[in-house]
UniProtKB/TrEMBL annotation:
Gene Ontology MF terms: allantoinase activity
Any Pfam family hit: Amidohydro_1
GO cellular component: cytoplasm
Species name: Schizophyllum commune (strain H4-8 / FGSC 9210) (Split gill fungus)
Database matches in SUPFAM superfamilies: Composite domain of metallo-dependent hydrolases, Metallo-dependent hydrolases
UniProt xrefs under PANTHER family: ALLANTOINASE (PTHR43668), AMIDOHYDROLASE 3 DOMAIN-CONTAINING PROTEIN (PTHR43668:SF5)
Superkingdom of origin organism: Eukaryota
Coiled coil (UniProt feature): none
Any one Gene Ontology BP term: purine nucleobase catabolic process
Entry protein name: Amidohydrolase-related domain-containing protein
Domain Amidohydrolase-related intervals: 90-441
């Protein structure tokens, strides 16, 4: 036993030499029919992601049997094969997520189902994510609906060493156990052992630096604990090597009566030093990246990937100094600035890393980014400059390689696992949706809903803008390039090459010829073919739009944007709401201008924000304000566009008091306001409530549960019955609003959906309408179909986030495509502009956004200017 163990110490992990000779997968489900996918456009992952094959795909016995041309003899071997005509649709390997917490941070979030983080000690290499994997997590089936088939399940980041991670397949198994979901579990788990002629399997370990939040310590403390733990593992490793040197030399007198040196707590860390573990390290800033690279060289172990790695693009040479090989960077496309470590994130990071010769992976950190939308991460980095082949590889073949599974997943190759996705459009087009997903050869979507009328143009890779100058500026300014627009005042700007103009009232002007549009001091003065010859054009700035458009600017609501720079750092924010009553907070008093999220959103067509005072534990939070995202301070003309917009409240199952108590307080507030003598001085809260019941401003109530929303409709009836007057009620949140859509429409109550792509984060957001391929309609479209006035807020992490505001136009394009022709372009634009203003009681801003190479709802266009009437400027971006 000791001799065999000693011989195995230096054997590197990987598949056995005969692995690709296998005829049946170890994960094959008996009774699964073979599948013949015909007439497909196959992205194989080969040749660095550049190989695309037009042909067929045969799946049988849990494996890919053939790619491209299928020999007749092979087809005859499977007489019961099921044939699918792909009709030239794109087919890829299943998506692979290198960083997920699904199962250990189960959804919906409930007490007893949170196993992501241990708070027992900073360094715990002995913990295992498999021991906390909840198979009832709703995330698995939703992930499959997004084309995700494999994920690495990591412990959380509260610890320097969080523990061992495990690769799983997402499909449900007959055994219904976590163990049955594992892909190549390390030998030793459940009593399995390395074969005499086979190498070990890869193990995975999660690290995090820094980890001061839980243990109140500095980076210096954490780094010492890393070195201390590694020194312990090194001592054990050296004792093992000394023991084995004697044993293998036959010097039994030196080891007689001695056990093989090992400690269960530290055996995984010893394997790290032997190069048998894929080290996955949560690391944000240059200081942390440099620290960990030094650690890898001091103790001589390779790093598989730096995760999050928000500043890795700024220090590529640091990564290249790591022991054995440069780590990959497993990054987000947009999730950023939520804490200080993420402040220098750049949308160009993926392209910059690729240009530096480093591997790029896009991952979810589910549910930081919901794993169902992992492909959207690749779509975004492609938009910002990452080549098509690398962008697709970043969520398929590259993560498979980084986790040591590229011998069986991540590629369309014979003898690889039959994890395959058929898409309704090119995978890098927004809204690309699976029409079928196979895991181990078994179809996962029972009755997929297919969007039937997608344009043929969506079957090719999207054209994207040139961002070379912006990427270079990002590097030059160490991740913080200037974002303020160039203000043009008292000078005309002529937009040439205009093909479309959409006005705020929904009127659209299109032209087969290039039009010119002249603007001065925020006002359009001429539109037409001959505008370039008018007097106002003399000495003007010329902006060529190359077939572009002018469209209404987007309006955002639902995040702290305007009241916080870094959401988790209170020193950068207005702060939480205090006691409400005699005084009522007004968001206008806490406005912050020129934040990076605001200016980035402005550069992507979101020109106006509405924000309410921020509260997580108050029934009423205060009065919202409307403001310009392009303004740099409050005293600028047009910076504050409406000082008081609406009164805001929240009714939630998570409050300290019951829902019935919250509703009773809200009802009493409105009725007391009505009964009060308006001639007497009242508290600021009562005065605001009086304005609501008089119909002067809306009451905006954040609520997600359909039961709570239904109760709020009853409250509206009660108040209106006593007062004899209608008042404006808007629901913000509305995840379950689709369940009572007809009742909302009949009551004249609109919904601001926060966020447009629903996920069951918690119990009051559990009953979602996920949209294709699982249901015909998403929440938004179900409400629109019922005649409800709907606006949308941005997507984000666990709900709307300030960093997500920039992606508003992506969200609108997605809804437009998903509607399958039921939404017009004008209606889609209204979801994030005029409808938001209407539901909040905000006056129209009148801003027009200029885009180059298409309109605001064309994925490949680029925002280059804003015509702002309220601010009296034309901003060039």
């Amino acid at each position: 036993m000791s001799i065999a163990k000693c011989k195995s110490l230096h054997v590197k992990p990987g598949p056995p030499p005969s692995f690709h000779d296998r005829a049946v997968s170890d994960r094959h489900v008996p009774g699964t029919k073979p599948v013949w996918v015909r007439n497909a456009t196959l992205w194989t992952g080969n040749a660095n992601g550049t190989e695309v094959v037009t042909g067929d795909l045969l799946l049988a016995d849990g494996l890919i049997k053939a790619v491209g041309i299928i020999p007749d003899a092979l087809l005859r071997a499977y007489p019961d094969v099921e044939s699918i005509d792909a009709r030239a649709a794109w087919v890829t390997p299943g998506l692979v997520d290198l960083h997920s917490h699904m199962g250990v941070g189960a959804s919906p979030k409930l007490q007893g189902a949170g196993d992501t983080n241990s708070h027992a000690a900073p360094m715990q290499p002995w913990l295992r994510s498999i021991d906390g994997l909840n198979t009832h997590d709703e995330s698995f089936k939703l992930g499959i609906a997004g084309g995700l088939t494999t994920a690495l399940i990591l412990p959380g980041s509260a610890n320097g060493i969080g523990g061992q991670a495990f690769v799983i397949k997402l499909r449900e198994t007959e055994e219904r156990s976590p163990s049955a979901m594992l892909l190549e579990p390390p030998f030793g788990l459940n009593g399995s052992q390395v074969g005499a002629d086979g190498p070990p399997r890869w193990r995975q370990m999660k690290y995090a630096l820094p980890c001061p939040r839980v243990y109140s310590q500095t980076r210096m403390d954490t780094f010492w604990q890393f070195r201390e733990a590694y020194d312990k593992a090194r001592q054990i490793k050296e004792a093992q090597d000394e023991y084995c040197e004697a044993a293998l030399a036959g010097q039994w007198n030196l080891v007689e009566g001695k056990a093989f040196p090992e400690e269960l707590q530290w055996e995984a860390l010893v394997d790290v030093l032997r190069g048998k573990v894929k080290v996955q390290t949560h690391c944000y800033e240059a200081v942390d990246l440099d620290d960990f690279v030094r650690l890898s060289n001091e103790f001589r172990f390779p790093i598989a990937a730096f995760h999050h790695a928000h500043e890795s693009y700024l220090v590529p040479d640091v990564l290249k100094r790591a022991y054995d090989h440069p780590p990959a960077s497993a990054i987000f496309a947009a999730f950023s600035r939520y804490k200080r470590e993420a402040y220098r994130h750049s949308e160009f990071a993926a392209r910059i890393l690729y240009d530096a010769g480093l591997k790029v992976v896009l991952k979810s950190d589910h549910s930081g980014v919901v794993s169902r939308y992992l492909l959207h991460e690749a779509q975004q980095v492609h938009y910002f400059g990452l080549p098509e082949n690398v962008a697709l590889a970043s969520v398929i073949s590259t993560p498979a390689e980084v986790m040591g599974m590229d011998h069986r997943i991540g590629f369309l190759r014979p003898a690889y696992d039959a994890d395959v996705v058929i898409w309704d459009s090119h995978p890098l087009q927004l809204g690309a949706t699976p029409t079928q997903v196979f895991v181990d050869g078994a179809a996962q979507l029972d009755h997929p809903v297919v969007t039937a009328n997608k344009d043929k143009a969506l079957q090719t890779s999207p054209a994207v803008p040139d961002w070379a100058d912006e990427a270079a500026s990002t590097i030059g300014y160490e991740g913080l390039p200037p974002l303020a627009p160039e203000n043009i005042k008292e000078q005309a700007v002529v937009f040439t090459g205009v093909r479309e103009i959409i006005t705020h009232n929904g009127t659209t002007v299109t032209s087969a010829e290039d039009l010119a549009v002249i603007a001065r001091d925020g006002v359009i003065t001429c539109v037409g073919i001959h505008c370039a010859g008018v007097t106002d054009a003399a000495g003007a700035r010329i902006v060529e739009l190359e077939g572009g458009a002018l469209s209404p600017g987007f309006v955002t609501f639902g995040t702290p944007l305007g009241l916080a720079e870094i959401s988790s750092d209170t020193s950068t924010a207005d702060g939480p709401v205090g006691e409400v009553g005699a005084v009522l907070p007004r968001a206008v008093d806490g406005l912050l201008f020129g934040t990076r999220d605001a200016l980035l959103a402005y550069r992507h067509g979101v020109t106006r924000g509405v924000v309410a005072p921020q509260s997580s534990d108050k029934l009423v939070s205060g009065l919202s304000v409307a403001f310009s995202l392009g303004a740099l301070n409050k005293v600028e003309k047009g910076a504050v566009t409406q000082r008081i917009v609406a009164l805001h409240a929240e009714v939630t199952l998570k409050a300290k008091e019951s829902v019935s108590t919250q509703v009773a307080r809200l009802r009493a507030l409105l009725l007391d306001a009505w009964r009060s003598d308006t001639g007497k001085q009242a508290s600021e809260l009562i005065e605001a409530a009086q304005r609501v019941v008089r119909g002067e401003i809306p009451l905006v109530v954040k609520a997600h549960s359909a039961d709570v929303i239904a109760t709020l409709l009853d409250l509206k009836k009660d108040v209106e019955a006593e007062t004899g007057r209608a008042f404006s009620l808007t629901i913000a949140g509305g995840t379950e609003a689709h369940l009572i859509a007809p009742e909302l429409a009949a009551s004249g109550v609109g919904v601001l959906v926060l966020s447009p792509r629903s996920f069951p984060y918690d119990w009051e957001r559990k009953r979602i309408s996920p949209g294709p391929p699982l249901t015909k309609d998403s929440n938004v479209l179900a409400l629109v179909e019922a005649g409800v006035t709907v606006g949308i807020g941005p997507h984000g992490a666990s709900g709307p986030s300030s960093w997500g505001v920039r992606n508003t136009r992506f969200d609108v394009i997605w809804l437009l495509l998903e509607s399958d022709g039921r939404l017009s372009k004008e209606h889609a634009l209204a979801l994030a502009s005029t409808n938001v203003e209407k539901l909040l009681g905000a006056k129209s801003s009148g801003d027009l956004v200029a885009t180059r190479s298409g309109g605001l709802l064309d994925f490949g266009s680029k925002v280059v200017g804003v015509v702002s009437a309220e601010r009296g400027v034309i901003d060039l971006l």
